[in-house]
Design a protein that fits this description.
The structure is a single chain. This protein is mainly alpha-helical and about 150 residues long. It has two domains: about 80 residues; about 70 residues, no CATH class. Helices cover about 60% and strands about 5% of the residues. It is rod-shaped, with a radius of gyration of 31 Å. Bound molecules: zinc ion (ZN) (2 copies). One zinc ion binds next to loops.
Length: about 150
Amino acid sequence: MPYKNHEEKLAYDKWYRENVLTKEEVQKYNHEYGIKNYAKIALHQKSYVKENREKVLAQKSQYAKSKKKEIKKLFVDMYGGKCACCGETILEFLTLDHIHGRNGFGKTEKEARGLPSYRRAIREYKPDFYRILCYNCNSSNGHYGYCPHQRN
Ligand SMILES: [Zn+2]
Ligand SMILES: [Zn+2]
């Protein structure tokens, strides 16, 4: 045997399989020498990919969340830093309010709600059109047409 050790033989075999043998011959080799092993490896790789996929997806959603917070913070900083009604300053409680409603946006308008509306408010900077409200004041305004804070 021309190989110095077992590893060298394995490395040569691998090279041989990859570079010399035909596909059919490789399949035959796999079948003869490692079919059980190959099935095991495939299974292992599958679960590895799955784990990684979840990791990647988690990272992605984490990134989206922090991106969203960044944009929201920029909006809040630009428009005074607190709820226009009650003065709440905690970022997580704050949201964008369209002072004159969403008139002119149309229901299908992409930039009427959610993150795109923040982007638009930052881009346009119109304190007459956009303001900060906390979720409490905003939803009370939405449901009742007024906020109790303004009804002493
Ligand atoms: Zn408020
Ligand atoms: Zn209020």
